Structure formats: C-alpha cells, structure tokens
Amino acid sequence: MIPGVVADFSQDTWITYVVKAVLIVVFLLTSVLFAIWFERKVVARMQLRPGPNWHGPFGLLQSLADAMKLLLKEDLTVTRADRVIYLLAPMISVFCALLVFAVIPFGPNVTIPFTDYSTPAQLTDFPVAVLYILGCAALGVYGIVLGGWSSGSTYPLLGSVRSTAQVISYELAMGLSLVSVFVMAGSMSTSSIVDSQTRLWWFLPLAPAFVIYIISMIGETNRLPFDLPEAEGELVSGYMTEYSSMKFAWFFLAEYINMLNVAAVATTLFLGGWRAPWPLSAIGDGMLNEGWWPILWFLAKLWLLMFVFVWVRGTLLRLRYDQFMTFGWKVLIPVALAWVVVLATFQWLSLAGVTRTQLFVGIGVAAVVVFAVIWVWPEKKEPAPRRAAAGEFDPFAGGYPVPPLPGQHLPRSSRRTGTSAVAQSVDHSEETR
C-alpha cells in the first residue's frame, strides 16, 4: 500500500501496468472518434439537421473516414519553419494529453474474468496525483506556443500567444477551484478523493467551485464560446495554420483528449468518481458499487460532461478576446480565491470546536453588517457624459468605439485643428509678404 492512497497496487506486475496503459490509449483513441461523431450528431439535432448519416449505421464511421482523410493528405512543411520544433510541437501536445488518465480511477478493484487475479481499475496513483494532472496540463501549453513559433509565420505566432495566455489564465481559476476539494477531502490522491465521497459528492457542498471548474475547463480546452486561438477577422486556424495532414491531426487529437481529461477530472473530484448515483447506490447494500459496474457509472458521468461541451457550443455565441480575459482575471480568479478563503476559514473554525449553530449565527451577523454598510454607503455620482457639438457624432458614447452612421460626422481632431491653424498662419504670412 502507498501511504495516503486508498487503491492497492501491491499485486500489480509490470505486465499488468503495460496492459492497463495499452487499454487506456485504446480507450482514448476510440473515445475521440466517438466524440467527434457525438458532437456532430448532437449539434445537428439542435440545429434541426440530420448530421452524419452516410458512412456506417447512423454515420458512426464518419470519424474514421475523417481520420483516413487526414492520414492520406499531402504532408507539407513550411519552408521557413524550424523543422525540429515544427515536428515536435504536436507530439508534445498529444503526449501530455495522454498522461492524465494514468491516475484517473475507472473503478475499485476488479477481478479478471476466468481468473482469481484482482487489480484496481486504475493505472497508478500517488499522494499528489492531482498536482501531476495540473503539471501535465501546464506542459501541454508548450506544444501550442512552440507550434505557433516554429511555423515561421505571423498568424500562427499570434494565435499561439492568444491561446497560451488563455490556457494559463484559466488554469489558475481551475487550480483554485480544485483547492476546495483538497480542503474537504484532506488528500490529493484521486482514489482517496473518490473514497471521501462515499456519503456526499463534493459538487453539492462545493457548488461555487464546481461552477468555476466547469467554466474553466471549457476555456482551458479552447472550446466555444472560448474558441479564441483563431483570429476574429481572418480565416486562419491560429497556431495550427501552417500544419497539414497528420501533424494537424495530432493537434486535433490533443484537443479532444484534453476534453476527455477535464471531464474525467470533474467526474473524479466533484461527481463521486465511479460511484453510482444515490438511488442506485442503495440497491443491494452497495452491490452496484462493486465489480465492473462502477466503470459504467464513470463513463456515464464522463459523457454527460462531454454533452455539456457540445451543448454550450451549440448554444452560446463566441466572446471577444478582451471580454474573455477580463472575465477570467477579474471574475473567476477573485471569486475562486475568495471561496477558498471562506471554505478554509469554516474548516478551521470547525476544527477549533465552533458548533454549527454558532457558525450560522456568525454568518447571519456578518451578512447583516455587510448589508447595512452597502445600504448606507454614499452613492457615487457618475460624471455627466461628454456631449458632442451639434451635428457631431461621439463614437465613445457607449464605452466602445463605433463607426458613424450615414449623415453623421466625427468631431474635428485636435491634431487636425492644429495642422489647419499652422497652414492658415503660413498662408497669411505669404499674403503679408
């Protein structure tokens, strides 16, 4: 047994680890193919379209046809690219994405059919497994920034800078939302966190952290409405613009594997992991939480969160980059940090012997004081908006510059006025001569 870890890997041999690793890779590759078909089909139903329906039953082989198309396309390499880094960047993205599922528990101990061999439905685990997940996600950013830089072109470089800033910003909010789980579970081991949710899943008492994580996971994976590596006014694909064939497919594969990664982390840390939901968990004294059944519950929760990705994509409009970054730095990160402080304070008070009644009374008094301060706080008077002269149009009246409509004209620029005055003085001096 590993200290601080619930899962027991003492009976696993190197053959067991190799078989588990191969099964995880096969699971991720097949899940990506299914996720592409799933996304197209769900969005098509939302938009009243048939979706993939030609290749295979219900269009299930459409993703396989797309993969073969990328495999057989002409592989081009940009002349000005740094060839080594240009080829290494998509490999970094895929490799880091594949590492996360190594510590995700699919279920408890399972017995291999026709044998007496029992092993955890998990490749490995250790006391800081969640930090390992965050580290793998952080290293994956190098694939993005190196892919844009090594292309030797302006548009991929700009796309990589935008995407890198986006991923780093929303990883901060994601990490802060996970701290509250560490505080409640008392561990960073994924198997221990799942074990701590035997009676109550953490998404209920930690609802603010769960909402922050859901928003952050969409932004961190560059999915709509946060699909901002691509420029607003150019038909380019951001850091992937100069990639084609299988090198482009590796970036595409890494994006969908990262979607599965963040959904699996949310399932493990907030939704009880492989545990059955409440009505089913009470059947047969927890019989559905044993054997191979938990893998089914884990996959059901995983694909429920994948549906959230698709649902958000088919529902919300794309944000501007400044709105997205402002929301991340000025809303998500401060709220997540404040929630961690409040939760840690409550945990400290409970360990210090403060009863729930005293705690609720203190919260009520604090709420009354805050409400009173807000009520008596003097209202700040906004300065009167600058009024444009008669017939002139103020482009900044709404706070964001807009072009004038037909019949409107912009006020005269001070620079232009100064130039006109100089020109008039020169003409006057010439007339005087």
From TrEMBL:
MF GO annotations: NADH dehydrogenase activity; oxidoreductase activity, acting on NAD(P)H, quinone or similar compound as acceptor; quinone binding
Name listed for the protein in its UniProt record: NADH-quinone oxidoreductase subunit H
Transmembrane intervals: 14-38, 84-106, 126-146, 167-188, 200-219, 248-271, 291-312, 324-346, 358-377
GO CC, any one term: plasma membrane
Membrane topology: Multi-pass membrane protein
One Pfam short name: NADHdh
Subunit structure of this chain's protein: NDH-1 is composed of 14 different subunits. Subunits NuoA, H, J, K, L, M, N constitute the membrane sector of the complex.
Keyword field: Cell membrane, Membrane, NAD, Oxidoreductase, Quinone, Translocase, Transmembrane, Transmembrane helix, Ubiquinone
Enzyme category, top tier: translocase
Catalyzed chemical reaction(s): a quinone + NADH + 5 H(+)(in) = a quinol + NAD(+) + 4 H(+)(out)
EC number: 7.1.1.-
Region of interest: Disordered: 397-433
Alphabetical GO biological process terms: aerobic respiration
Function (record text): NDH-1 shuttles electrons from NADH, via FMN and iron-sulfur (Fe-S) centers, to quinones in the respiratory chain. The immediate electron acceptor for the enzyme in this species is believed to be ubiquinone. Couples the redox reaction to proton translocation (for every two electrons transferred, four hydrogen ions are translocated across the cytoplasmic membrane), and thus conserves the redox energy in a proton gradient. This subunit may bind ubiquinone.
Family: Belongs to the complex I subunit 1 family.
Main localization category: membrane
InterPro entries: NADH_UbQ_OxRdtase_su1/FPO (IPR001694), NADH_UbQ_OxRdtase_su1_CS (IPR018086)
Cellular localization per UniProt: Cell membrane; Membrane
